[in-house]
Design brief:
The structure is a homodimer.
Chain A (H helix, E strand, L loop, with lengths): L3 E5 L2 E7 L8 E2 L4 E7 L1 H11 L4 E8 L2 H12 L8 E3 L5 E7 L5 E6 L19 E4 L4 H14 L3 E5 L4 H8 L4 E5 H8 L4 H12 L2 E5 L5 E5 L2 E5 L12 H14 L4 H16 L11 H9 L1
Parallel strand pairs in A: 1-5, 1-9, 2-7, 5-6, 9-10, 10-11, 11-12
Antiparallel strand pairs in A: 2-4, 7-8, 12-13, 13-14
Helix pairs in contact in A: 1-7, 5-6, 7-8, 8-9
Chain lengths: ~300, ~300
C-alpha cells in the first residue's frame, strides 16, 4: 500500500510550557520549550508514520533557513517530503505558542501569503493510497482532493476553521469529511455537532465525522449518526490533537478497518496526545494506542 | 586598529510586534515578526560593525541547528565569529518576545545551563583593541576582562542585572564599567543613578557610566559626575537599546574620542534604535547617528 498524501500546512512552531500564561509585561521562565515542524498536514503526515502508516507531504514553504529546517525535520520523521514546494524569495511560516499547564494557549502565528499561492499542478498520485487535505492551502487542497476522487482513492478533508467560501468549496470535493465542531457549524449553520453532521451528510452524500474535543465525535453510518465518546484523560496539551485524530483516521481507513474501529483508534490516539507536552511530538505509536484501547 | 572582542550572550530571539499584549488565551495575529541572532554580546558586536567599527565575538552556543544559524547570522553581519565555542550535545539559547506598539514586552527565554560552562582558556588577544563583556557568561567575562587589563587595552563591563556576587566579581576586573540603573543599584545599594555612579567610581577607581533609559546617563569625569540626557524620541522598541549604547561607547572609546562625545554618540545611537522595530536590527549606521546629532 502506498503513502497517504497529506496536503496543506507546514510551519515551525516554538512551544513554551509555562506555569501560567502571562497577563502583563515581564519575563517568564518556561518549564519546557520545543521547536517543532508541524502545521496540520505536516503534523498529520508525521503522526501517520508514528502510527505505522506511510506518508508523503505536499506543502509549501519559503526558500529560507526555516524552510530548510521544516523539510529536514519532517523528513527525519520518515515522511516523503519530495513534493514539498519551495517558493523563491518567500518566508516560511512560523509561530510562537505559550501554553499553561492545562493546555490553554496564546498563539502568535506568522504566515506569509506568498506561501499559499496556487500550485502549478497536482502531484502524480500513482501509488498513493489516499489524499488528506487541510484548509490552509486551498488551491492545492482542491486539486488534490479532485484528483484523488478521479483516481478512485479516498479524498479526506480536514475541515477546520477557514473562510466559509473556502470550506464550502473544499467539502464538495471530499469523499470523507472530518470536520471540527466550529467548522461544521460555520458550513451548516447547525449549532450541535450531531445536527451539523446530519446536514453535511445530507447535502454532500459522503462519510462525515464531526469532532468536538472532549465531547467526542459524531459520525455517519448506514444513514444514521453514531457518537463515540472521547476517552477521559487529564489534558495538558491539546495542540495537534486534531491532527493526531486525522492521522489515526487515515491510517485505519486505508487499512480497510470497520468505521467503528477507525473512530475508536483515532479518538484514543488523540486522547493520548493530549496528555503529553510538545504539540505533535506527543503523538503515540500504534502499540501505545492499542495498549490504551485494550486497557 | 584591531577588533573589539565582545564576550557573552548569543541567543536567537523571535520578536513579534503586536497591536497589544495578550491578556488571555487565544490567537494573536502580529503586525510584524523577525527572527534575529542577538543576546547582549552578539548584538553589541553586530552593532559595532554597523557603527563603523570592527568586532569579534566570544560566545557559547550548542552544536544544534539554532547554533548554526546564530553563527551564520552574526557572521553575515560582519562579525568575526571564529572564537565562538560550540558545546557538543547542548541546546543553543532562544527566546520568543511579544512586543506591543509602545515597546512593552513579554519575554520567554530558554537557556540551557550547559552553554555557560566555564571556558577552557581565554582567546588570544593579539591585535584586539578592547574587550567588552556582558554578565551572561561570567567565567569567560572574568578571564577576558583580566586578560585585557593585563594587555593594557580597555576592559569594558556591560553590567546588567545578574546575581549580586557575579556582578561584584566582574566589576573588579573592569577598566570601564557601563552599568544599567538596576544593576548599579544592586551592586551599590544606592537608589539614584547618580549616587550609584559615585559609589562605583569611589570603590573601583575606574571610569563609570550608569544608564537610565529615557532619563539619560550619569558618568564620571575628573572626579565628578556628569549627566547626559537621552535624546527625546518616540520609543516603539527598546529591546537591545542598551546593547546599541554599549556598542557606540566601545567604538568611540577605541577611536580615542573625548568622553563627552562618546556618551553623546552612544546615547544618540540608542535613541535611534528605540524608534525602530526588530531588536538590534533597528541599530543605526554611523552616518545616521552623526546626522541625528547634527540635527
Amino acid at each position: 500500500m502506498g503513502p497517504i498524501l497529506c496536503v496543506g500546512a507546514l510551519t515551525m512552531d516554538t512551544i513554551f510550557r509555562l506555569e501560567r500564561l502571562p497577563e502583563q509585561p515581564g519575563k517568564v521562565i518556561p518549564l519546557d520549550a520545543v521547536e517543532v515542524a508541524e502545521g496540520m498536514a505536516a503534523a498529520q503526515a508525521a503522526t501517520i508514520v508514528r502510527l505505522g502508516g506511510e506518508a508523503a507531504l505536499w506543502a509549501s514553504a519559503g526558500d529560507d533557513g526555516i524552510g530548510d529546517r521544516l523539510v529536514a525535520q519532517i523528513s527525519e520523521d520518515g515522511v516523503d517530503t519530495s513534493r514539498v514546494r519551495r517558493v523563491a524569495g518567500a518566508r516560511s511560516g512560523f509561530s510562537s505558542i505559550l501554553m499553561d499547564q492545562t493546555g490553554s494557549t496564546i498563539i502568535v502565528p506568522r504566515y506569509a501569503a506568498a506561501i499559499t499561492s496556487p500550485p502549478d499542478a497536482v502531484p502524480d498520485l500513482a501509488g498513493v493510497a489516499a489524499v488528506m487535505a487541510d484548509v490552509r492551502w486551498p488551491a492545492a487542497a482542491r486539486l488534490a482532493l479532485a484528483a484523488a476522487k478521479a483516481a478512485g482513492i479516498p479524498a479526506i478533508l480536514d475541515a477546520d476553521m477557514a473562510a466559509a467560501d473556502v470550506l464550502r468549496d473544499l467539502v464538495a470535493e471530499a469523499t470523507h469529511i472530518v470536520a471540527s465542531e466550529s467548522a461544521a457549524r460555520l458550513i451548516t449553520g447547525a449549532d450541535a455537532p450531531e445536527a451539523a453532521a446530519w446536514r453535511l451528510a445530507d447535502e454532500y452524500g459522503v462519510f462525515v465525522a464531526v469532532t468536538a474535543g472532549a465531547h467526542g465525535c459524531w459520525w455517519t453510518e448506514s444513514g444514521g449518526i453514531r457518537h463515540t465518546p472521547a476517552p477521559e484523560v487529564e489534558a495538558i496539551d491539546t495542540l495537534a490533537a486534531g491532527d493526531v485524530f486525522h492521522a489515526g483516521f487515515a491510517v485505519g481507513l486505508t487499512e480497510g478497518w470497520p468505521m467503528q474501529r477507525i473512530i475508536a483508534f483515532a479518538s484514543a490516539a488523540a486522547a493520548i496526545k493530549c496528555t503529553r507536552f510538545g504539540g505533535r511530538l506527543g503523538a503515540p505509536t500504534r502499540a501505545e494506542v492499542e495498549a490504551f484501547i485494550a486497557a
